Amino acid sequence: MEKLMIGIELCDAYTQAAVLGREEAWGLPTVICRKKTAEEWCIGEEAYRYTLVGEGVIVDKLLSLAVKEGTATISGVKYTGSGLLRNFLEKLLAMIFAEYPGAGVDQLVISLQNMEMKLMDELSAAAEALGIPRERFHIASHTECFVYYVLNQRRDIWGGQVGMFALSNEDLRYYELKIVRGPRQMTAWADHEELEEGFALSVLDTGSGAKMADKILCACADRFLQKRLFSAVFLTGKGFAKTDWAPDFMKQVCAKRRVFTEPALFARGAAMKAEDYRRERSSYPFVCLCEGKLRSTVSMEVIRRDTKVSMALASAGESWYEARSVMEVILDDQDYIELTVTPQQDPKQKRTVKIPLEGFPKRPNKTTRVRIAVGFLDEKTMVVKLVDRGFGELFPKTGLEIRQEVMV
Predict the structure, then answer these.
(1) Which residues pair with 363 in a beta bridge?
(2) Of 67, 271, 317, 320, which has the most beta carbons under 10 Å away?
(3) What is the rounded distance in angstroms from the CA atom of residue 309 to the CA atom of residue 305?
(4) Is this structure's pTM higher than 0.85?
(5) CATH of 3-141, one of 2.30.29.30, 3.40.50.300, 3.30.457.10, 3.30.420.40
(6) Among candidates 20, 23, 30, 21, which has minimal Cα distance to 107?
(7) How many Å apart are CA 210 and CA 145, to the nearest integer?
(8) How far apart are CA 315 and CA 297, in angstroms?
(9) What is the CATH number of domain 144-267?
(10) What's the 3-state SS for the chain?
(11) Cβ contacts of residue 137 below 8 Å, gap of 6+?
């Protein structure tokens, strides 16, 4: 059975999907419709068609509905936002598999504009309900997918500073990527800015509206690109599916620069990241620091076979949503756990965090095991759980737990 590497850009208004190695991508509105005559679902443009002829009821803004734990009542039946989002993903995957009969998911990466814990949990639950194992399902930010797409191009394209404008309905964002070569490895720094100048794409339907939009983009290009050197500039999003409506902007942005358009860039970048999950070791020789990634490494010193070593509990460049670790240690003349937080950007700014083991029973030295579990609420907030595991039958475990949030 053929296994596919799939990338999906999922937004409240519009969704793009790509399969690694396939030239064409899928693009459709993020809406779902239930037919009135039967409990059958359709999505995208088909959903609009059934609704327009009065044969179905449509629901939009599926991501927001799921996050708010909202519901929608159709023909007297109440559906949860989580269930509707799962149905949408199921129909979307069915649309993809229709082009690949008998195929399955090798790796699936969903690219999100905003990395909200609630939404990510909803998507993870939806993937599991659709039979996609956790190790084959991942979530990445738009910024990270931008990085993966660019770094899959020729080296001369990403050798310098890279800029990108993303234009979708009422949303305009600017992204920037720079590769910093360090003594041991390269670091990919990427960030984005949401611009207030966003506009509805419907204005492009009229000549005057298109001229206004062209002027808006020219002002943005002047602000971000003027007098700066770029090895490449990318244009993405539904608004750049065509560029003939913005002649002045295109003339300005193309002046002495290489410019590339790819409306489905985030979905394609997600598919490229999906391929990297297949490998035991990443084929990308860099640490990616961007939205959705940890900016610091969290470690602790332990004695292993009479040698002091540093054990990483979480590493800079890891996805904060997926960064989890568990280890057990035996206390040696101390009643606290000490962690070291080292920023990737400036290792000299590293700091130590001591977590007192308040309430833990007093025992002889080296007779207390502590289970250390680390997870994250977001890219800046780490949660550390310390559990008393005792020491065999002589010193039974109490199960006492300490939970502390640490800013990283």
Answers:
(1) none
(2) 271
(3) 10
(4) yes
(5) 3.30.420.40
(6) 20
(7) 29
(8) 4
(9) 3.30.420
(10) CCEEEEEEEECCCEEEEEECCCCCCEEEECCEEEECCCCCEEEHHHHHHHHHCCCEEEECCHHHHHHCCCEEEECCEEEEHHHHHHHHHHHHHHHHHCCCCCCEEEEEEEEECCCCHHHHHHHHHHHHHCCCCHHHEEEEEHHHHHHHHHHCCCHHHHCCCEEEEEEECCEEEEEEEEEEECCCCEEEEEEEEEECCCCCHHHHHCHHHHHHHHHHHHHHHHHHHCCCCCCEEEEECHHHCCCCCCHHHHHHHCCCCCEEECCCHHHHHHHHHHHHCCCCCCCCCEEEECCCECCEEEEEEEEECCEEEEEEEECCCCECCCCCEEEEEECCCCCEEEEEEEECCCHHHCEEEEEECCCCCCCCCCCCEEEEEEEEEECCEEEEEEEEEEECECECCCCCEEEEEEEC
(11) 107, 108, 110, 124, 127, 128
Name the one residue in this structure whose structure tokens are 């998911």.
105
Identical topology for domains 3-141 and 296-407: no
| Cα–Cα distances in angstroms (integers) from residue 319 to residues 110, 141, 343, in the given order | 13, 10, 15
Class of domain 296-407: mainly beta
What is the residue extent of each domain of the chain? 3-141, 144-267, 296-407
Q: How many whole angstroms separate alpha carbon 349 and alpha carbon 199?
A: 42
Amino acid residing at 266: F
**pLDDT tens digits, residue range 355-387?**
999 999 999 999 999 999 999 999 999 999 999
Q: In this structure, which amino acid lies at residue 305?
A: R
pLDDT, residue 108, reads 98
